[in-house]
Design goal:
By secondary structure, this protein is of the alpha/beta class. The chain is built from 18 helices and 14 strands. The longest helix is centred in the middle third of the chain and has 32 residues. It is globular. The structure holds nicotinamide-adenine-dinucleotide (NAD) and uridine-5'-diphosphate-glucuronic acid (UGA). Keywords: NAD, Oxidoreductase.
Length: about 475
């Protein structure tokens, strides 16, 4: 079966970039990305590609090339479903905030709504692809909905699992050159035919040996497993960072030493103020919940520790600022460099900066923030969401600056929360001259030049580095 029309439901951080690359690489396929959020669709359609709703290096060029040719963004979900032979579901699957599994399980209401809409609208057979990250065995629920809520006129649905492994900030490079593409489907001949149809799409630019096909459950579970392993590495190195600080070891040296063991490997061993992002925490909590529902308490506890360690890392960073500043930050200006959860993205979901700011505001600090890509409204929304204090209090306690030097002026301390490259190129002497003395820098990303900063006169703390 040759695919000519693809629909993707969900124009977010995954749906937008993923479909833009598919459209660019497959000019013979029409790709329509739909969303219920009209503002988001309008931004995807903005003539000025610097205004796209997702910031990713290289995304603007891909969109500029394909949009209007074979890449379309629309709010007309029904029409796009109707026209497509293959429909990707790329909607959000956040942690549940209510009811059974609150705070742990994935909230599948958006996925269910998609499935119901596809069933209602479809007039011919469809391949439905799970692009969102989902609990293992969700495909059976989707199949049930598709088969039983539609018009009942014999339409056949094939469900594939095709989890996305892109990381934000490098999404375009990851999509153009993925380590692997994973496709899970039914072992029946119809299932295999559906798998092949999706393999054929990716084969336009991904070498076939990197396209892995499995059964549906392996594919669904591999996504949660991959994120759990990645997050576990960060928590493992962060756990060692605390021990390094106590013992005089340097976590970067330790990471290098262990990373040269080819069984361990050098990547993803950067100690930090704690991992953020929309998925690591959500997916591990989901994994923990799934394990618990099968009565696998030891498995659940094992993975939960990754989150406990991460929460500890964020909290101890804030605590260290307070204790170093003579046990009080009340009324003191603390400058934040960075708010995004990592560099090269405007995404702030679960960013460590939010939690560090929240702790410091509890201590009555005056926080001033500079981030090159995150807008003020986003930062306030992140803080308001925690419900720790009123919206007015958040706006009183936290100032957002468009200029980094202004953010640091008069500050007692600077905290580096995101590893943006530009921070390394600043005139640190100028910053020092405009700060209160002693001037402290708390480098939560370990990116600044320690010798240079110390020479200027800063009291410099780097995560994972003992005296
Ligand atoms: P997102 O919140 O940025 O985007 C989801 C979009 O879906 C939103 O724009 C929302 O309006 C839309 N939507 C929700 N319900 C809809 C409906 N019924 N009809 C039409 N549109 C609807 O989320 P995201 O970051 O793109 O993540 C999507 C999925 O991909 C999640 O399951 C996530 O775990 C997974 N994932 C994310 C990343 C990442 O880097 N962000 C990477 C891999 C996998
Ligand atoms: C992560 C995975 O890397 C992707 O493969 C996956 O598709 C995605 O989650 C998802 O499912 O959403 P992402 O969260 O975008 O991607 O970014 P990462 O590069 O993994 O970084 C996550 C967090 O860990 C960031 O806060 C980052 O600063 C932190 N991190 C990462 C470290 O502190 N140290 C490291 O060595 C690596």
């Amino acid at each position: 079966m040759k695919i000519k029309n693809i629909c993707c439901i969900g124009a977010g951080y995954v749906g937008g970039p993923t479909m833009a690359v598919i459209a660019q690489k497959c000019p013979h396929i029409n790709v329509t990305v739909v969303d219920i959020n009209a503002d988001r669709i309008a931004a995807w359609n903005d003539e000025d590609v610097s205004k796209l709703p997702v910031y990713e290096p290289g995304l603007d060029a891909v969109v500029a090339e394909a949009r209007g040719r074979n890449l379309f963004f629309s709010t007309d979900v029904d029409k796009a479903i109707d026209e497509a032979e293959m429909i990707f579901m790329s909607v959000n699957t956040p942690t549940k905030t209510y009811g059974k599994g609150k705070g742990m399980a994935a909230d599948l209401k958006y996925i269910e709504l998609c499935a119901r809409q596809i069933a209602r609208v479809a007039k011919d057979d469809k391949i439905v692809v799970e692009k969102s990250t989902l609990p293992v065995r969700t495909a059976s629920a989707i199949k049930n909905i598709l088969d039983n809520t539609g018009n009942g006129n014999g339409i056949k649905f094939q469900i594939l699992s095709n989890p996305e492994f892109l990381a934000e900030g490098t999404a375009i490079a990851d999509l153009m050159n993925p380590d692997r593409v994973l496709i899970g489907g039914d072992t029946t001949p119809e299932g295999q035919e559906a798998i092949q149809a999706l393999v054929d799409v990716y084969a336009n630019w991904v070498p076939e040996e990197q396209i892995l096909t499995t059964n549906v459950w392996s594919s669904e579970l591999s996504k949660l497993t991959a994120n759990a392993f990645l997050a576990q590495r960060v928590s493992s190195i962060n756990a060692m960072s605390e021990l390094c600080e106590k013992t005089g070891a340097d976590v970067n040296e330790v990471a290098k030493a262990i990373g040269m063991d080819s069984r361990i490997g050098p990547k993803f061993l950067k100690a930090s103020v704690g991992f953020g992002g929309s998925c690591f925490q959500k997916d591990i909590l989901n994994l923990v919940y799934i394990a618990k529902t099968y009565g696998l308490d030891e498995v659940a506890d094992y993975w939960e520790q990754v989150i406990i360690m991460n929460d500890h890392q964020k909290r101890r960073f804030a605590d260290n600022i307070v204790s170093t500043l003579y046990n009080t930050v009340s009324g003191k200006k603390i400058a934040f460099l960075g708010w995004a959860f990592k560099k090269d993205t405007n995404d702030t979901r679960e960013s460590a900066a939010i939690y560090v700011a929240d702790d410091l505001l509890n201590e009555q600090a005056k926080v001033s923030v500079y981030d090159p890509k995150v807008v003020a409204e986003r930062m306030y929304a992140d803080l308001d969401y925690l419900n720790t204090r009123t919206a007015e209090e958040n706006r009183e306690g936290l100032e957002v600056c468009k200029d980094s030097y202004q953010a640091c002026e008069g500050a007692h301390a600077i905290a580096v929360l995101t590893e943006w490259d530009e921070f390394k190129t600043y005139d640190w002497k100028k910053i020092y001259d405009q700060m209160q003395k002693p001037a402290f820098v708390f480098d939560g990303r370990g990116i600044l030049d320690k010798e240079q900063l110390k020479e200027i006169g800063f009291v410099y703390y780097k995560i994972g580095e003992g005296e």
